[in-house]
Amino acid sequence: MTPGVVTPAKREELAARMERLGMREEDIEESFVRGSGPGGQKINKTSVCVVLTHRPSGLMVRCQETRSRELNRFLARRRLADKLAETIEGEQSQRKQQAEKIRRQKRRRSRRAKEKMLSDKHEQARKKEARGAVAPEE
User: Fold this and answer.
1) Statement to judge: residues 27 and 68 lie in one domain
2) Range of the domain at 56
3) Among the listed residues 68, 63, 43, 45, the one whose alpha carbon sits nearest the alpha carbon of residue 53
4) How many Cα atoms sit within 13 Å of 97 on the Cβ side?
5) What is the per-residue pLDDT across 91-119, written as a single tens digit (0 to 9) for each?
6) Which residue, 7, 59, 65, 88, has most beta carbons within 10 Å?
7) Residues near 17 by Cβ (< 8 Å), separated by ≥ 6?
8) Closest CA to 20 of 65, 82, 90, 66
9) Distance (Å, rounded) from C-alpha 71 to C-alpha 5?
10) Number of Cβ atoms within 10 Å of the Cβ of 68
11) How is residue 3 annotated by DSSP?
């Protein structure tokens, strides 16, 4: 498969998802703007950045992941569907759940690291106490 090409199966999957969410193509306002960031002359000359606005919900999505306008259109629609799913369903999306899981794991790791560091410090303190005081030389 060549990069930058969306398969018909993926297009159909996205269309079905949009239909389930109640998103219609007529409700989406699409505009193309010039991109920004790295990419040099090509990015400054072509309007590959896609901006989608879902009129009923007021959600707006901007996508400039690739230099292909068609792929950006597809990716923007997918992002818009993700955003709409988050607001409609009211439950956390899979992406948010994954981020929360990682955040919990990091918090847990840091707590374990802190406990280990403190136990090492206490062990060092016990060693120093066991040495006893040194008598001054005369």
Assistant:
1) yes
2) 8-89
3) 63
4) 6
5) 556 777 888 888 888 887 788 888 999 99
6) 59
7) 81
8) 82
9) 7
10) 15
11) T
Question: Would the CA dihedral through 33, 83, 74, 66 be positive or negative?
Answer: positive
Residue 38 lies in a domain: yes
- Tell me what the mean pLDDT of segment 49-61 comes to: 92
Judgement on whether residues 65 and 96 belong to the same structural domain of the protein: no
Q: What length is written for the chain?
A: 138
**Residue pair 91/29 in contact by the 8 Å Cβ criterion:** no
CATH for 48: 3.30.160.20
d(CA 83, CA 72): 16
As a whole number, mean pLDDT of residues 37-59 equals 84
Which pLDDT score, from 0 to 100, does residue 68 have? Answer: 86
Residue 90 — pLDDT band, cuts 50, 70, 90?
low
Residues 49 and 117 in one domain: no
